[in-house]
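Bench log. Compound arrived from synthesis this morning; before running ITC I wanted a structural hypothesis for how S-adenosylmethionine sits in the protein. Inputs:
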Amino acid sequence: MTLLAMWANLQEKGITRTISIIANRMFDFHFDFKYKTDTHNRISLEDLTVTGENKEHGSFYQPTMALSFNRLLAAIPLPPESVLVDFGCGKGRVLLLAALRGIKKAVGIEFSPELCEIARNNVRIVEQATGASLNISVIEGDVTHYEIEDDQNVFFLFNPFDDVVLEAVVKNIQQSLRSKPREIAIIYYNPVHSHILDNSFLPRNSYIIGGEEYMLYVSC
Ligand SMILES: C[S@@+](CC[C@H](N)C(=O)[O-])C[C@H]1O[C@@H](n2cnc3c(N)ncnc32)[C@H](O)[C@@H]1O
């Protein structure tokens, strides 16, 4: 973060939030430095190739803050035998953090082939660094075409797309629950379009962690 950006943050968000943002950024830097991964930087969709018809509905790449995500995972009740799906997984930071925290399996869907390649490479790097085989799959494609599997029960969204695509994803989750009723959790980080989920699932709690907002929903 440049000094100018830090000053702008201080003016806009106040001292506590600014300190929290700096701590988060340092932890993120440390994550990539420790493993030699590349999960950082915001990237506009204009600078990426995108498969499918939903580019105009998608958000740019920006990684979840590692420190706040780790604290969230420690704080929330997750269904047993958690299999996490990150809708719009980008460079795979959430998949890596979840796998490193012992989640059974993590699956990422991403419509940018460049980001998928980086995510897969990051998985290889962390596997080599830790000597562990991480149960992570990165699937290239548009989330609206993704068929949810019966064992998947934790769905993560970091404000990846607008209400149009979110509606389609919600329908897919509901369809999956009809064919295989089960306990699920949906984590919606930076929940800009939360009204769509409010109408379909049970809002369980809202968490502000490190100044970041997450909504947790469960199946009704
Ligand atoms: C804000 S980033 C979040 C990245 C990652 N989930 C994380 O938290 O670190 C949103 C990602 O969603 C992807 N995306 C947006 N719309 C998508 C769609 N319809 N299908 C698949 N990926 C999509 C973008 O390419 C971007 O990488």
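What the model suggests: The chain has a mean pLDDT of 94. The first strand starts at residue 83 and ends at 87.
ITC booked for Thursday regardless.
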